[in-house]
């Protein structure tokens, strides 16, 4: 005589993973249906790459190297900074998307449904990191097309460079999510997240920190982009990394933790 087997109830972790994957699909579907925001943000680093290479490349390379103009050398110098700038540009779209969800009432609807509460934020974060990686690949492809080469990097250094890009994207995404949650509308979210694309302009992305005016050097030195750029540049080009590697990882972890607690505490706060 056979006995009926009671169906197993899904665990809390499996429910969280299921709901998070659903929210991830939702955000990727929105990005596919409305690509204009992502494309507009992605055009900024591509246009700056072409501008600095073909308009300022000879002059900037001569100024940095102290010798004759060498556009190929300057391409190699600025690409690591522009890859990280691409991440900062991409996550602005995340802040806008989160703010739109908050102000258009869909989050209030999600709060009434039997879904894991944190899955909404996880969907935004994972989707943003995936979009950042794809944007970096696209900008990297443009850089290779116009002459960038990384012949000195080993397979291990390529893996470390990819890991740094993903970790940096994760950290900036959590900060962008927090900015989106506290913004009253999408326009304010875009403005609040603008420093994520402006900070690379006052870092070592385009010129060495020593070449900056004296009053600007502390800003360039004590911010997250400069050590991350120097670390990525060292991994891709075989230059010295020094203490920048530990600083870059520390910045990424610190920003990720700060953004996570800021975002979750803001999101879990009951609306007034």
UniProtKB/TrEMBL annotation:
GO terms for biological process: response to antibiotic. InterPro entries: ABC2_TM, ABC2_TM_bact-type, ABC_2_transport, Nod_factor_ABC_transporter. This is Transport permease protein. It is a multi-pass membrane protein. It comes from Streptomyces botrytidirepellens. Pfam families: ABC2_membrane. GO terms for cellular component: ATP-binding cassette (ABC) transporter complex. Belongs to the ABC-2 integral membrane protein family. Coiled coil: none annotated. One of its GO terms (molecular function) is ABC-type transporter activity. Keywords: Antibiotic resistance, Cell membrane, Membrane, Transmembrane, Transmembrane helix, Transport. It comes from the Bacteria. The keyword Transmembrane applies. The keyword Transmembrane helix applies. It is found in: Cell membrane; Membrane. The chain crosses the membrane at residues 34-54, 74-99, 120-148, 160-182, 194-216, 245-263. Residues 36-270 form the ABC transmembrane type-2 domain.
């Amino acid at each position: 005589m056979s006995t009926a087997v009671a169906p197993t109830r899904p665990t809390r972790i499996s429910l969280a993973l299921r709901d998070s994957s659903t929210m991830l699909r939702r955000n990727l579907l929105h990005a596919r249906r409305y690509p204009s925001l992502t494309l507009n943000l992605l055009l900024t680093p591509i246009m700056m790459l072409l501008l600095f290479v073909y308009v300022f490349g000879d002059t900037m390379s001569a100024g940095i190297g102290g010798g004759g103009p060498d556009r190929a050398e300057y391409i190699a110098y600025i690409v690591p900074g522009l890859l990280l700038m691409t991440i900062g540009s991409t996550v602005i779209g995340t802040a806008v998307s989160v703010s739109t969800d908050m102000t258009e009432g869909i989050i209030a609807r999600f709060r009434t449904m039997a879904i894991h509460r944190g899955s909404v934020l996880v969907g935004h974060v994972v989707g943003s990191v995936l979009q950042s990686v794809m944007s970096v690949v696209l900008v990297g492809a443009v850089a290779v097309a116009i002459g960038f080469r990384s012949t000195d990097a080993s397979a291990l250094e390529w893996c470390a460079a990819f890991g740094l890009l993903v970790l940096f994207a994760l950290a900036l995404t959590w900060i962008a999510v927090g900015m989106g949650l506290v913004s009253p509308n999408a326009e304010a979210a875009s403005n609040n997240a603008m420093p994520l694309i402006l900070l690379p302009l006052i870092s070592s992305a385009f010129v060495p920190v020593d070449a900056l005016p004296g009053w600007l050097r502390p800003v360039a030195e004590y911010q997250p982009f400069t050590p991350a750029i120097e670390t990525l540049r060292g991994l891709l080009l075989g230059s010295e990394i020094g203490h920048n590697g530990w600083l870059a990882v520390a910045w990424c972890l610190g920003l990720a933790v700060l953004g996570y607690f800021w975002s979750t505490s803001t999101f879990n706060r009951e609306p007034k």
